[in-house]
Amino acid sequence: MMASTGGGGSGPSFMNRFSTLPTSFEMLLSPLFQGNAPLSRQEVYDEYYASPGYLEQYHLGLRRGLQSIRERQPTWLFEKLVEQMPMFWEAESMAAIHLKRGAYGPVRPGWAIAWALVLLAPYLALLPPFVAGLAGARYARPVLLFTGFLVYYNLIHVVTHGFNRYRLPVMPVVFLFASWSLAAWRAGTFPALSRARRLAAAGLGLTLLLCLVPSIRHVRHAAYGLAPAEPSEPADETPVP
Asked: Nearest Cα to 217, choosing from 38, 81, 39, 96?
């Protein structure tokens, strides 16, 4: 599907809607701008959608996003890693977020806690064997392919912004490495790790742990009844299509 350069209508105006940019470009530009500019989401949208068409929005988003990246140098990369990776790898789920927002109607705190555990416990349980699988996998083309995709996908959400549901495309990679390490451990074939690989595993494990620590804030939500409620649930930073 192709994105529009102008408004709706018929004839040439209608044809222009399908003649310029892939929809994927349109979806990426607001996050580039939104994820780097020192503006609120609403301020970004107000400026972004004030442009008359998708092509103009494309140029605006690209220009303003790159401008913000330049202005935040030389600490931009460090700041973005600290800001976005905890959001990307956090122990949270859109289903749990909707429950806390009341989308499923009133839910007792006990059931809300059980719901969150069903959603999040498997994810948390997969992370240690995932780290072990990355550390123990031998260098081979499939491993390099999956690892490269994992790194690339994390980086594009550092450049834009992270959110828990954005990690869904890389979860099959997490499953693969985790399942391989568990199967190798059960079969007694998990390789002995060199000192470098042990250090790499420790570094990755510590990084994931640091990304998960901010998730503790979710426990304070009123839906769980475990602590005084936080003022409000942070809004999904997903750009509006």
From this structure: 96
